[in-house]
Amino acid sequence: MSELELAEIQEAEFVLRPRLDGRCLHLVLSGSADGQVESILIQFFRRLHAEALRLGVREVVVDLQRLDFMNSSCFKGFIVWIDAASSAHVLDRYRIRLRSNTSFHWQVRSLDALRRMAPSIIDVESIAEAVP
Amino acid sequence: MSLARVGVRVTLPAALSVVGSTRRYLDQFVLALSANAAAASQVALAVHELFDNAIRHATGGAVELVVELEDASASFTSLTVQTLNQASEQDCSEVQRILDEMHGAHDPMEHFDREIRASVGRKSSGLGLVRVCTEANINLSCHCEKGYLSVTGTTTVTLGRAA
Questions:
Q1: Do B44 and A116 touch (CB under 8 A)?
Q2: Class of domain A9-127
Q3: Closest CA to A44 of A72, A83, A12, A5
Q4: For chain B, what is the mean pLDDT?
Q5: Has the ipTM of the complex gone over 0.85?
Q6: B120–A83 CB contact, under 8 Å
C-alpha cells in the first residue's frame, strides 16, 4: 500500500496529526481551529478526500477530544469534505467516525449537525472527559 | 454571589489574531461569575463568531465588544454579547437579511441544516450567525446607524451552585 501523503499541521495553538493504519486513516486534532489556521485546514480537507480515495481507505476516524474550539470557517472545511465523501461512488465510499468530547459543549450540536448531513456514513462517538 | 450588573467593555484592534485569546478570557470570566460551564461555552461561541464577523467586515481599524451579565432573579441572569464596528451599507443589509431569514424559519434546526448544505457552494461559510443562534441558543438582533453596525446577542442562563 502507498504511503500517506498528508502532512501534519503544527501551529502555535492547533495541531492535526494524520496517521494511516491499514485501510483506516486516523486524524487527531487538538487546540483551537480558528482564523489563524483556517486556510491551512481548508486545504488539508480538500486533499483528504483525494488521499482517502487514492489509498482505498474504508474508514476515517477523526479524534476531536482535545479540540477546544472550531470557528465557522474551519467548520465549513469539514462540511465540504463530508459533502465530497458522501457524494463518492458507492464502491469508493468510506465511513467517518467522529470522536467527540462533550465537555466541549460546542461539539455536541456541531458534530450532530455534521452527522445529519450524511447519516449513512457518519457516526459520532461521545465521551465526557474533563477539559485539561 | 449576587451579580447585579457586571461586564466587560473593550475596544480591540480589528485583527483575527486577538479573537482566540479574547474568547478564552471571556469564557473564564463568565464561568467564574455564573459557575455554569454550558453558559460559558455559549458565550465563548458567540464572542468568537460575532467578533470574528465584525473583524472581517469592519471598515474601521477597531471593534468594540461587550459582555454583560445582569441579575434577573435569584437563579437566573440575563447575558448580553454585543459587537460594534464601522461597516458598509451592504454588510449591514446582509446581516439584517441573515437574521430575518433565521427569525422567519419555522424550525431553527432545519434552517441550520439547510444553511450548512448551502455553505458548500459559498466563498465564505456564512454560518457564524446561525451557529450563535442554533448552537448557543442566543437570540440575535442588529442595528445599523450612521455607518456603524451593532449585533447584539441575548439569552438567560441558570446560575450554578457555586455562584
A1: no
A2: alpha beta
A3: A5
A4: 91
A5: yes
A6: yes
